[in-house]
Design brief:
The chain has a seven-stranded mixed β-sheet with strand order 1-5-6-10-9-8-7, sandwiched between helices. It has a three-stranded antiparallel β-sheet with strand order 2-4-3. The protein is about 35% helix and about 20% strand. It contains eleven helices and ten strands. The longest helix is centred in the first third of the chain and has 27 residues, at about 55-80. The relative contact order is 0.11.
C-alpha cells in the first residue's frame, strides 16, 4: 500500500502540473480529492494492512492527502491571481464593447415636461416625501372625516415622532410649502414620487410620479388654467393631441376638473385620466396665509407615467418599474 500511495502522489502531482485552465483544475480536484476520488478510494484498503504496519501506512496516507491539498490550493491561488498556466491575453486585441447606458424613460419624461412648463414661466419647487397631516390633508381643505385620510388609502408610518407622518399621497403638499415660503405672484411646478396603496394594473401602481402646477396672482381664472394645460399638451404631444376637461371634485380646488387624454391601452384607444385641476380653494389660500379676496390661482396635478405612456406608446405602466433592460434600452 505504501508503494501505491507513492504512485498516487506522483501521478496526482504530475497531472496537476499539466492543468491549463479552471475546468481542468476542478476535474483534477474531483479525481483525486473528491468524495469518490482516488485518495478516498485508498481508505478502505487500510483494513488489509497488518497491525504493525498500520501506523506507518496511516501516517503516509495523511502526508499524501496534505501534500495534494496544499498543491491544489497553491495552484488555485495562482489561478485567481492570474498566474495559472493557459493562453496569454493579447492586450493588442480589440476589447469587447461595453453596454451603452441611457436615462430611464421616466427621468427623460420628467426633464422634458419640466422644460415645457419652464418655457411658460414655471419655476421648480421641492418638498419632502415623508409628510405631516397638515401639509398632506388639513391645509388642502381635506377634513378629518374625509375618506382620503383613511388608512387603506395611505401609507402611514408607524412610530412617527412629532405627530402622525405618512408617505405623501400627492405633490399638492409642495404647493402649500411654496405658498408658505413665497408671497404671490407665484408660478411653480413640483415633480416627484407619490405613494398610494393602489392595486397594480396597466394604469395604476403603488408608487408613481406626479407634476403639480400652481399659479397664484391677481385675476387668475379657469381660462388661464385651460390655456396652460392645452398649450402643454400641444407642445409636448403635438398639435393633434386630444385632451378634454370634464367636471370633477377635489377638496382643494373649486371649481374642479379631470384632465383626460386619448391614448392606446392594449391595442385599444381610450380616454385615460392624466390628473386633476381647478381653481385653488379659498380655504387653501387662507391656510397658507394668502388673502383669497385679493389673490386667486389655479393648480393641476398630472401623472408622469401616464404622460410617458401616451408619448412613447407604452401600454402597461408596470413596465416602468420591472427594470427589464430590453424595454429600457428602447428609450
Amino acid at each position: 500500500m505504501l508503494a501505491e500511495l507513492e504512485q498516487l502522489e506522483s501521478d496526482a502531482l504530475g497531472q496537476l502540473g499539466e492543468v491549463t485552465d479552471a475546468d481542468g483544475l476542478e476535474s483534477w480536484r474531483i479525481a483525486y480529492l473528491g468524495s469518490k476520488g482516488r485518495l478516498k478510494g485508498m481508505m478502505p484498503l487500510l483494513k488489509d494492512v497488518s497491525r504493525e504496519d498500520k501506523p506507518a501506512v496511516g501516517k503516509r496516507l495523511n502526508e499524501v492527502k496534505t501534500a495534494l491539498e496544499a498543491a491544489f490550493e497553491a495552484r488555485q491561488s495562482a489561478a485567481l491571481a492570474g498566474g495559472a498556466a493557459g493562453p496569454a491575453i493579447d492586450v493588442t486585441e480589440p476589447g469587447l464593447p461595453g453596454g451603452g447606458g441611457c436615462r430611464h424613460v421616466l427621468s427623460r419624461t420628467i426633464a422634458e415636461v419640466a422644460e415645457v412648463f419652464a418655457r411658460m414661466g414655471f419655476a421648480i419647487a421641492e418638498g419632502p416625501e415623508v409628510e405631516d397631516e397638515w401639509h398632506n390633508f388639513t391645509a388642502l381643505n381635506i377634513p378629518p372625516e374625509h375618506p382620503a385620510r383613511d388608512e387603506i388609502e395611505n401609507f402611514y408610518l408607524a412610530g412617527s415622532e412629532g405627530g402622525l407622518k405618512l408617505l405623501r399621497s400627492q405633490t399638492s403638499t409642495v404647493q402649500i410649502r411654496a405658498m408658505e415660503r413665497q408671497r404671490p405672484p407665484l408660478r411653480v411646478t413640483a415633480i416627484g414620487r407619490v405613494y398610494r396603496p393602489d392595486t397594480h394594473d396597466a394604469t395604476h401602481f403603488s408608487m408613481f410620479h406626479q407634476i403639480e402646477g400652481l399659479y397664484i396672482d391677481r385675476g387668475v381664472n379657469m381660462v388661464d388654467l385651460k390655456t396652460v394645460l392645452f398649450q402643454f399638451a400641444r407642445n409636448y404631444f403635438g398639435e393633434e393631441a386630444e385632451v378634454r376637461m370634464r367636471p370633477g371634485f377635489f377638496p382643494f380646488t373649486e371649481p374642479s376638473a379631470e384632465i383626460d387624454m386619448k391614448m392606446r391601452v392594449k391595442d385599444e384607444w381610450m380616454w385615460v385620466e392624466l390628473g386633476g385641476c381647478g381653481m385653488v380653494h379659498p380655504n387653501v389660500l387662507t391656510s397658507a396665509g394668502i388673502d383669497p379676496e385679493e389673490f386667486t390661482g389655479f393648480a393641476f396635478g398630472l401623472g408622469i407615467e401616464r404622460i410617458a405612456m401616451r408619448k412613447y406608446g407604452i401600454p402597461d405602466l408596470r413596465w416602468f418599474f420591472e427594470n427589464d433592460a430590453r424595454f429600457l434600452r428602447q428609450f
